[in-house]
């Protein structure tokens, strides 16, 4: 697999600090999108620093720009929100950590493919700190866990939108969600035999959102500075 270099994603040491916010409670999805778009505009205009926003949503499905209506299996189960991020249908809900990254790619090489690889590397490094081997797969966005019987399960999703080289949306990691909630969609186009979804809890890892936040912050520095 030819992967673009991600080392250039780090900003210079004298750049402004990246702000981290942890949102309490369950954040309604429309409020998240409105806040992200406002922050993107402020970053573009130099009025705000870059931001990584850690949130948890109530149960919902989001529809990316490549979503197919036939992949929405239970349209009445949870609210469905159309969004401008890339990808297909994704579930968000309790027990899943969503990290929205609003970064200035004008300062990080203006390479969207390298940025997506950086997000993948960020998740992989974080999962490794829990003893979980996350892997990339050609043609399948996100991070996967391979099992001895040949099955592969998705543990993290990635969806990105960029406006004037400022990123938003980001990643989601299944910490301890109700995995049955994914059955209302074909998540991110997973329709092949032997593919599914998993979580840290399902893999036997006892971790909460705060534990995941800690390793995400530490791993972020490795990739993005």
Which features characterize this protein?
single chain, 225 residues, alpha/beta, BirA Bifunctional Protein, domain 2, 8-stranded mixed sheet, 3 helices, 11 strands
Topology:
Layout lengths: L18 E4 L6 H16 L6 E5 L4 E4 L16 E3 L6 E4 L3 E7 L9 H17 L6 E3 L2 E7 L5 E12 L2 E9 L20 E3 L11 H16 L1
Parallel strand pairs: 1-2, 3-4, 9-11
Antiparallel strand pairs: 2-6, 3-5, 6-10, 7-8, 8-9, 9-10
Helix pairs in contact: 2-3
Shape, per Cα inertia axes: globular
Can you say what the CATH homologous superfamily is? Bira Bifunctional Protein, Domain 2
**Euclidean distance between termini CA atoms:** 25 Å
Which fold name is given in CATH as the topology?
BirA Bifunctional Protein, domain 2
- Helicity level, as a percent range? 10-25%
Oligomer classification: single chain
Count of alpha/pi helices: 3
CATH structural architecture: 2-Layer Sandwich
Taken together, the total number of domains comes to 1
Q: How many runs of DSSP E, i.e. beta strands?
A: 11
Radius of gyration: 17 Å
For the residues shown, what is the average pLDDT? 91
Binned strand content: 25-35%
CATH class: Alpha Beta
The major beta sheet can be summarized as: 8 strands, mixed
Order of helical and strand elements:
EHEEEEEHEEEEEH
> Stretches where pLDDT falls below 50 for ≥5 residues?
none
Category by helix and strand content: alpha/beta
Your description of this structure?
With 225 residues, this protein is of the alpha/beta class. The chain has a single domain, classed as Bira Bifunctional Protein, Domain 2 (BirA Bifunctional Protein, domain 2, 2-Layer Sandwich), CATH 3.30.930.10. Helix content is 22%, strand content 27%. The protein has three helices and eleven strands; from the N terminus they run E-H-E-E-E-E-E-H-E-E-E-E-E-H. A hairpin with a 5-residue loop joins strand 8 (140-146) and strand 9.
């Amino acid at each position: 697999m030819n992967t673009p270099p991600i080392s250039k994603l780090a900003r210079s040491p004298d750049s402004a600090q990246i702000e981290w916010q942890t949102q309490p409670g369950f954040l309604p999805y429309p409020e998240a999108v409105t806040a992200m778009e406002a922050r993107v505009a402020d970053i573009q205009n130099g009025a705000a620093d870059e931001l990584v926003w850690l949130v948890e949503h109530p149960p919902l499905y989001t529809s990316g720009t490549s979503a197919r209506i036939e992949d929405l299996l239970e349209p009445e189960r949870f609210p469905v929100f159309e969004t401008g991020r890339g990808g297909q249908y994704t579930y968000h809900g309790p027990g899943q950590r969503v990290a929205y990254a609003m970064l200035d790619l004008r300062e990080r090489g203006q390479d969207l493919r390298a940025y997506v690889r950086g997000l993948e590397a960020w998740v992989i490094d974080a999962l490794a700190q829990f003893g979980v081997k996350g892997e990339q797969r050609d043609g399948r966005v996100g991070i996967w866990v391979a099992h001895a019987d040949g099955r592969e399960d998705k543990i993290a999703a990635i969806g990105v939108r960029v406006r004037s080289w400022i990123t938003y949306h980001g990643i989601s990691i299944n910490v301890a969600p109700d995995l049955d909630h994914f059955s209302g969609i074909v998540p991110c186009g997973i329709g092949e035999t032997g593919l599914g979804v998993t979580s840290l809890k399902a893999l036997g890892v006892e971790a909460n959102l705060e534990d995941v936040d800690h390793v995400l912050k530490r791993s972020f520095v490795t990739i993005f500075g």
